[in-house]
Specification:
single chain; about 725 residues; alpha/beta; TIM Barrel; Rossmann fold; Immunoglobulin-like; 3 domains; nine-stranded mixed beta sheet; 19 helices
Length: about 725
């Protein structure tokens, strides 16, 4: 075969490969900078279309959620500012005018469609659409003054017709706010009949939140949600494949009450989003890095689809009180550092406020540096498990409700959210890059890329997950687990012993000790886990599970409970506080107490040191950052098959108060790459500049970053 023929065959093969490659839609090509100007508190159309679009464009947004249905007190059919067959009243066709002005300025228009809050009067017109409580009464009091409809009723067809009417305008997408169930719904006739047909039995109560019956009910509601999303997406894609569709997804919390289980619902969405940037109330109790933690979780759940962190610019629940500029920049920075797109929720009043410049400045930064925020992957070697199964079935997990600041409490013992937050914070303050993985990852996705996996009270665990973790450890993976990890099955039923008992080297007892309000632990042998900790007595976790050693080394034990805080010197008990066991090629650390929960509450330096020692010993750092406080978050990502490394530094160092009004800059930050890591060029993006590349005494590449305000990105090119 001659050379020209070979070249023609190769060229034809390349063209065929390109033709078979998935088509990239507009929402996959560049970072999205999404704005939502809330019209539920301000009448649609009060600002002329050209003026509103110009405000958004000048602030640097390239897409939006447009609220074109009036919602004062909930949605109904009276407030459509577009033409619809379902409109109960004819209003000005604002959408027709506005979409032209938005597209002229390069803004993609996704329609905000609230599908979980309706006016009570509208519900009274359609009683068979309403969600019904277990007591048989229609749902009331949604956002204090509304109701909601069930997606298994004929209301779904009403929604689909609204979608068709909107799609006729050439919109770019639809965002569903909702749908959701509630903690005591839906027991309408449609749901009862559908459940009876599927399972041959009556719907069980939601009051008993463990066991196979509750699991079946949750699966039923999630499947109903998935069907609704699937059919909604079909309606839109039948009109145009370029109409994006997604919903307000599940949170990093217990989603059993709403049935928003992202792993099951992402298949029928084009993006995956969650309210990781909504912060409210006493901000000293809100993790600084909340957006980034949610973004990590979404990246794991999205299956390669783009993710979005929804951020409210207001200090909730004070809708008209904007957060200070540093807080806004930090919320934005923590989102993009962790590979998510930005959504900012504002009111029309906010567009004229000076704080908008902080958001506009970040928008301009992302627009200018868009290529550094697309096609990246995490290079973390540590993973922390957020177990949605535990959050849904375990008694120590509160249910996150849809109304801001509403939480249905369960038990303070083993609080799953606090346990996760404490472990995550310990790693963040130790400058350890990490991913957030979930139960699905444990059951069926690769684990070998991680040198260490942290299991913060992953109490509910399937047999399959346990088996895979055993295999992972035998092959050289490392674990740190706390409290009741693996003591319950995936329906919340308590086992006789840990599923991971052999790995832990301890057997579970029947009793939980506590609360230990002034008690201690004590190191009983020299161990690397206690390196740098000089105190004889260490504060005790508030609760711990009594366990019996079965092959594990026990370097730390609990002391005998004191009768009061001045009850003399505590005596050593026989109860293990920490157990360490070698299994095959891997090491497993088991902490009997609610270590993360206690850490999140009190931030004991000894707890932070133990977690840092564990992370650095079990998974050597992929990048080392020195001369920075613990309040600087480190994110390590790459592009182009690792040829470009991206170090994101998010500086949360304020003046010991929140909301943060001033960030203290980190100066002369030292960054060292591992031995053998190459780089021919290093530079920064936020404060653009080349960084001289040096080497330390071990021959490792080192650079110095002159200044980090709220955010900086350091780029290493190979």
């Amino acid at each position: 075969m001659n050379r020209p023929t070979i070249l023609l065959i190769l060229a034809a093969g390349a063209l065929l490969a390109q033709s078979n490659a998935p088509v990239k839609r507009w929402w996959q090509k560049a970072p999205l900078r999404i704005i939502d100007v809330t019209s539920s508190i301000d009448r649609v159309g009060t600002v002329p279309p050209a003026q509103l679009a110009e405000w958004k464009a000048k602030s640097g947004f390239n897409s939006e959620h447009l609220e074109i249905m009036e919602m004062q007190g909930g949605l109904d059919d009276q407030g459509f500012f577009f033409q619809s067959k379902l409109a109960g009243r004819v209003n000005p066709d604002y959408l027709r005018q506005y979409i032209v002005e938005a597209h002229k300025r390069g803004i993609r228009v996704l329609i905000y469609f609230n599908v979980h809050w309706y006016q009570t009067a509208f519900g009274a017109k359609h009683p068979d659409w309403r969600q019904i409580t277990e007591s048989g009464k229609p749902l009331e009091g949604v956002y204090n003054n509304g109701t909601d409809f069930c997606l298994n009723t004929p209301w779904r067809e009403w929604c689909f017709q609204v979608l068709r009417d909107l799609a006729a305008y050439g919109i770019d997408g639809v965002f569903y706010d909702g749908p959701v169930y509630r903690a005591d719904t839906c027991y309408c006739d449609y749901c009862r009949a559908k459940y009876r047909k599927l399972y041959g039995e009556e719907m069980p109560s939601k009051l008993t939140r463990t066991g196979t019956q509750f699991k079946r009910l949750l699966d039923f509601q999630v499947a109903s949600m998935a069907e609704f999303l699937r059919d909604s997406n079909k309606v839109l894609k039948s009109i145009s494949p370029d109409i994006a569709f997604y919903m307000n997804g599940g949170v990093r919390g217990a989603n059993w009450a709403t049935a928003r289980i992202n792993r099951e619902l992402v298949e029928y969405q084009d993006l995956l989003g969650s309210e990781g940037g909504f912060i409210s109330g006493d901000l000293t109790r809100v993790p600084l890095w909340k957006p980034g933690l949610t973004a990590r979780m979404l990246e794991t759940q999205a299956g390669g689809k783009p993710t979005v962190i929804f951020t409210a610019a207001a200090h909730k629940p004070w809708t008209f009180s904007l957060l200070p500029r540093p807080e806004l920049r930090l919320l934005y920075a923590d989102t993009i550092a962790n590979a998510a797109n930005v959504w900012m929720g504002l009111t029309s009043f906010d567009l004229k406020q000076p704080e908008m410049e902080a958001i506009a400045g970040m928008n301009r930064f992302v627009e200018k540096n868009a290529s550094y925020f697309t096609g990246t992957r995490s290079e973390a070697r540590v993973a922390v498990v957020w177990s949605e199964t535990t959050a849904n079935f375990y008694s120590g997990s509160p249910a996150q409700m849809i109304d801001i600041d509403r939480v249905q409490s369960r038990s303070a013992v083993g609080n799953v959210d606090q346990e996760f937050s404490g472990i995550a914070e310990s790693l963040l303050r130790a400058h350890v890059p990490f991913d957030v993985i979930d139960d699905v990852t444990l059951e069926r996705e690769p684990l070998e890329r991680y040198a260490a996996i942290f299991l913060p009270n992953v109490a509910c665990m399937s047999d399959k997950s346990a088996a895979r973790l055993k295999e992972y450890v035998e092959k050289g993976g490392n674990l740190l687990a706390t409290f009741e990890t693996s003591l319950y099955d995936d329906a919340g039923v308590r086992r006789d012993n840990f599923a991971l008992a052999r790995l832990f080297g301890v057997a579970a007892g029947a009793r939980i000790a506590g609360p230990r309000n002034w008690d201690f632990m004590k190191g009983v042998s020299s161990h690397w886990l206690l390196e740098g900790i000089d105190r004889e007595f260490l504060p005790s976790p508030i609760y711990y599970l009594r366990v019996k050693p079965e092959g594990a080394e026990v370097p730390v034990r609990f002391t005998v409970p004191l009768k009061g805080r001045y009850d003399g010197v505590p005596a050593l008990s026989s109860d293990p506080a920490v157990a360490v066991k070698q299994n095959g090629k891997g090491t497993v650390i088991y902490v009997a107490g609610d270590f993360g929960n206690t850490l999140a509450s009190f931030r004991f330096p000894e707890f932070l040191a133990m977690a840092a020692n564990a992370a650095r010993r079990l998974a050597p750092l992929p990048v080392t950052v020195d001369n920075v406080p613990g309040s600087v978050e480190v994110v390590w990502r790459s592009q182009n098959d690792g040829r470009r490394r991206l170090l994101h530094l998010v500086n949360f160092t304020g003046e010991m108060t929140r909301p943060i009004t001033r960030v203290l800059p980190a100066l002369n930050v030292s960054v060292t790459l591992p031995k053998g890591e190459r780089a021919t060029k290093a530079y920064t993006l936020m404060r653009p500049g080349l960084l001289p590349i040096g080497k330390d005494s071990q021959g490792r590449i080192r650079v110095t970053v002159p200044r980090v305000d709220e955010y900086e990105v350091v780029v290493f090119e190979r």
